[in-house]
């Protein structure tokens, strides 16, 4: 079965990333044991979290059910600890995430907008399957080559049943609050529209070329008075309720600034859909051809 990987043939190479519940590692899968095997990315639960296999199995099922050029490919599973827990095997993209790639490459605005449009295409497909991603950020977008990006992690993705609009969560764990829509911070209400807000923050990251000095967290921290308050979720909510938003990165075209701010509308219903963002980004990109 090409989707089954045997632990004994997986040779660890290096870490690719670490989240709250798991970590992603680069391995060579080398059954011939002659160094000619293919490189794969393996996502495993951190041991202390192996108590939550049901949402882990759900994550594996979700990625296995997805098939889109802008979504990282599922390759299979590997039994761990005598079969209790599975490891998720994905295709390996050598250029890593946008956070690794953008600071090193001086991409023009047109190529940044092409990446943004491809993220919208992957997300439009995900929403068409009635999944809310809940963790869209530049660190979770992978680079295949300088013309193709893919969404690379679905650890917080949830299915929204027909007829429902929101997904309420209990755990806040290590929540990516600076990418969260205001209604997620205030009421833990996640929806297709809250993914649009996170896309706006991801577009902001792309336009700053993932410069960490201009990260969402640092930029929001600059908006408060450091002398009398420390940044936390309550301070962030107040700042957003005062209609403050991330600043427009330099060399960001005016129509892209408007598009980004539309994604951060307080009212979720005022935010665009990924379909309309694809059309708008396509039109703006054509002015650069
Ligand atoms: N270079 C790659 N090829 N294939 C991959 C699959 C996933 C990833 C990946 C995907 C996401 C991240 N972001 S991350 O913030 O490190 C992360 C978030 C949630 C859960 C985890 Cl375990 C890690 C880091 C790495 C990288 C590659």
Major sheet description = 5 strands, antiparallel
- Would you report the number of β strands? 11
Question: β content, as a range?
Answer: 15-25%
Backbone shape: globular
Structural class: alpha+beta
Please mark out the parts with pLDDT under 50 across 5 or more consecutive residues, or reply none.
Answer: none
Strand order of the largest sheet: 1-2-3-5-4
| Beginning-to-end CA distance, first to last residue | 46 Å
Mean pLDDT equals 94
What pattern of helices and strands is seen along the backbone?
Answer: EEEHEEHHEEEEEHEHHHHH
Number of helical stretches of at least 4 residues: 9
Bound molecules: the ligand Nc1n[nH]c2ccc(-c3ccc(NS(=O)(=O)c4cccc(Cl)c4)cc3)cc12
Helix percent band: 25-40%
Nearest-angstrom radius of gyration?
19 Å
Description:
- The chain is of the alpha+beta class.
- Helix content is 34%, strand content 19%.
- It is built from 9 helices and 11 strands.
- The strands form 4 sheets. The chain has a 5-stranded antiparallel β-sheet with strand order 1-2-3-5-4, with helices on one face.
- Strand 2 and strand 3 form a beta hairpin.
- Helix 3 runs antiparallel to helix 5.
- 35% of the residues are buried.
- The mean pLDDT is 94.
- The structure holds the ligand Nc1n[nH]c2ccc(-c3ccc(NS(=O)(=O)c4cccc(Cl)c4)cc3)cc12.
């Amino acid at each position: 079965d090409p989707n089954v990987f045997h632990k004994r043939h997986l040779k660890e190479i290096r870490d690719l990333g670490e989240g709250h519940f798991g970590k992603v590692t680069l391995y060579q899968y080398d059954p011939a044991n002659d160094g000619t095997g293919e490189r794969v990315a393996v996502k495993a639960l951190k041991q202390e979290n192996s108590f939550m296999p049901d949402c882990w199995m759900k994550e594996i099922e979700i990625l296995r059910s997805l098939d889109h050029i802008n979504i990282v490919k599922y390759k299979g599973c590997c039994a761990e600890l005598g079969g209790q827990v599975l490891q998720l095997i994905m295709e390996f993209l050598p250029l890593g995430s946008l956070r690794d790639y953008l600071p090193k490459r001086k991409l023009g605005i047109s190529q940044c907008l092409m990446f943004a449009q491809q993220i919208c295409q992957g997300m439009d497909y995900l929403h068409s399957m009635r999944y809310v991603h809940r963790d869209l950020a530049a660190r979770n977008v992978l680079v295949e080559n300088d013309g193709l990006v893919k969404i690379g992690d679905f650890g917080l993705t949830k299915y929204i049943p027909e007829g429902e609009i929101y997904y309420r969560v209990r755990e806040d764990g290590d929540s990516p609050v600076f990418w969260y829509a205001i209604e997620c911070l205030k009421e833990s209400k996640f929806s297709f529209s809250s993914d649009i807000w996170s896309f706006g923050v991801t577009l902001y990251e792309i336009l700053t070329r993932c410069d960490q000095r201009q990260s969402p967290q640092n930029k929001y921290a600059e908006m408060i008075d450091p002398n009398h308050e420390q940044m936390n979720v309550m301070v962030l909510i107040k700042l957003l309720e005062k209609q403050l938003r991330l600043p427009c990165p330099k060399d960001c075209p005016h129509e892209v600034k408007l598009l980004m701010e539309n994604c951060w509308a307080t009212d979720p219903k005022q935010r665009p859909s990924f379909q309309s963002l694809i059309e708008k980004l396509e039109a703006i990109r054509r002015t650069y051809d």
